[in-house]
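Changelog entry: the Cytochrome P450 record was regenerated in this release. Current contents:
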Amino acid sequence: STVGDVVYIRLFKNPVVILNSVQGAHDLLDKKSAIYSGRPRTVLYDEMCHGVGLWLKFMKYSERWKKHRKWAQNVFNDKVALRSYLPLQQREVYMLLSVLRDTPGVEGKDGAGS
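Regenerated structure tokens:
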């Protein structure tokens, strides 16, 4: 099935908007960022991460968020740092593939599967 440029879902009773095009993201997040850049309040998550640093996707849009985002971009754009994530990424992919292989009703495009 095909989805549009903007998809709305509810995730754990919270509204989530997914932007599937660069133009849609630019229009909503750059041109109207003050309206659409808010984050849901997550009390339990905030408590669990206190003192460790909050993940960007759960931080409220603010000057602090901008600083954290800039820091994170610098880290993730560093080629040495990116290479260091490869073993973790491979392990997670193997785990996902294992779960998909062992899940009844999950089939590949060729029709093979459980």
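The CA atoms of residues 39 and 59 lie 6 Å apart.
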